């Protein structure tokens, strides 16, 4: 188990070699076949004593990442929150990690694959997952990883994410509430249009959906699959939490983003576009048009 207090010795990178990549994850092919990209499900992992999640190593990581890859704030937040109003915690990233037990904070280190050791671990994990996801969502691209370090009781407000995601709980526990992103009462077409047009990822949690969806008490050693744009909020247990999120995209998600962007601009022009996925021919025409326009714009930008 990773200790939540900083020890004097920082583990050397040679220690990373003690893990056999085959043992990092334990996956059930039937779960993937039945649920991947449609419903959340649990997997097992063996990262809880991995040296990359020692707090000293995470402090090192905060020093090596550029500022824009580190997001952190006070963690005692309500479930629904305007991102503009999120309060900071008054500490540096390094201090936040060192004082995570008492500083009531939430921190995410983004794109940690910039560090070669984390990239190696991400690649090893995704290579174990890919044989089961590829038949369902072919063409794994953009592998990215995130490390979350959060104080006891911290809340991540209700939001949606754009990637295929597995959240691996390394230390501590999290309660996760997830709702069904296929239900248009829960995530509307306009919610998705705004999200894919970069107008915010937080949603309003509607009390009438309180009794729907799934609740997970995610313990160290377990991982949870989050289908793309299934809304969720997360509350930490009563000890420091460290989690490793491994994500990837697929070409169908690029198409989805493009179609919602098209609908968003049509709606801004006063039209009422039909929902994405309702008319295949319309979607194909719009997506091809979008790609042509994108090519023309990128050519213009490069000349
Ligand atoms: Fe999320």
Outline:
This protein is α+β, with helices and mostly antiparallel strands and 303 residues long.
Report on this structure:
The chain is an alpha+beta fold and 303 residues long. The protein folds into 2 domains: 19-250, Jelly Rolls (Sandwich), CATH 2.60.120; 254-302. 30% of the residues lie in helices and 23% in strands. The strands form 2 sheets. Strands 1-2-10-7-12-5-4-3 form an 8-stranded antiparallel sheet. α5 (189-196) crosses α6 and α6 crosses α7. The longest helix is centred in the C-terminal third of the chain and has 23 residues, at 280-302. The chain starts with 24 loop residues before the first strand and ends with a helix. The model is unreliable at 1-17 (pLDDT under 50). Fe (ii) ion is lined by residues 159, 161, 232.
* Number of domain modules: 2
Give the strand content. Answer: 15-25%
- Helix content range of the residues, please? 25-40%
Radius of gyration of CA atoms, rounded to a whole number:
20 Å
CATH class group of the largest domain:
Mainly Beta
- Identify the strand order in the major beta sheet: 1-2-10-7-12-5-4-3
User: Helix-strand pattern, N to C?
Assistant: EHEHEHEHEEEEHEEEEHH
